[in-house]
Amino acid sequence: MAITIKSQRELNLMREAGKILADVHEQLGRFIRPGISTLDIDQKGEKLIRGYGCIPSFLNYNGYPASICVSVNDEVVHGIPSADRILQEGDIVSLDAGVIYKGYHSDAARTHGVGQISPEAQQLIEVTKQSFFEGIKMAKEGMHLYDISNAIGAYAERFGYGVVTELVGHGIGKNLHEDPQIPNFRQRRRGPKLYKNMTFAIEPMLNIGRPDVEWLEDDWTVVTEDGTLSAHYENTIIVLDGEPEILSIL
């Protein structure tokens, strides 16, 4: 496992990528409402990304056909946008997006309620987000990689949620996916030591039901095996000697 330490030049480019992606997510969040299609979201997201002079990280990545992963209700991640998939009042929708700015990536995800949603769905969204923040308390120089994983998993389990184990966070930089893989669930070992200026995409995915998932026939869309709701929250961060820097939040 080769975890790269980024230079100040690289970090500054990633900071700019993160700022742009944060704004894209803010605008997409305001756009979400009943009656729009998941393709509408993708088209708006691509226009925003290219408007900043950036390239969508996901478009054609390993063959993925869109710029924004749009996953509704029991879809965990990698939902393919479609003109036929119309958001309904009470749905929840996860948006996963990435941008490339001058050769460097940022990656972030948010889950939104569509109109009025159930208290159960609202809690799932809030706990998924907070589990990210619990995890990054451990993302500082001198700690170990799986301290992040253990903190995310421990928090999520307090609410009885299923923590997805088949999909994990990752390193990020010149490549969208770099070493290391970062599980969102408890590990028996502590893993590699963390050093200043490592860059990670931390992304808990929680299910109301069991953690088990399956892939649909499109080979991209991941859904909960039991049909329960799933939420996703992600940011790109820099490890520092104190609190980490979150790049993809305004």
Features:
alpha+beta, 28% helix, Creatine Amidinohydrolase, 250 residues, 4-stranded antiparallel β-sheet, 4 helices, 5-stranded antiparallel β-sheet
Strands side by side in the biggest sheet = 8-7-9-14-15
The CATH topology annotation reads as: Creatine Amidinohydrolase
Number of strands: 15
* Rg, Å, rounded: 17 Å
As a percent range, the share of helical residues equals: 25-40%
CATH superfamily grouping: Creatinase/methionine aminopeptidase superfamily
> What structural class is derived from the secondary structure elements?
alpha+beta
Query: Could you say which overall geometry the principal axes of the C-alpha atoms support?
Result: globular
> Which residues form runs of ≥5 with pLDDT under 50?
none
Mean pLDDT: 98
Structure annotation, total helices: 4
The largest β sheet comes out as: 5 strands, antiparallel
In sequence order, what are the helices and strands, one letter per element?
Answer: HHEEEEEHHEEEEEEEEEE
- How many domain modules? 1
The CATH architecture: Alpha-Beta Complex
> Could you give the distance between the termini?
32 Å
Strand content: 15-25%
Give the C-level CATH assignment: Alpha Beta
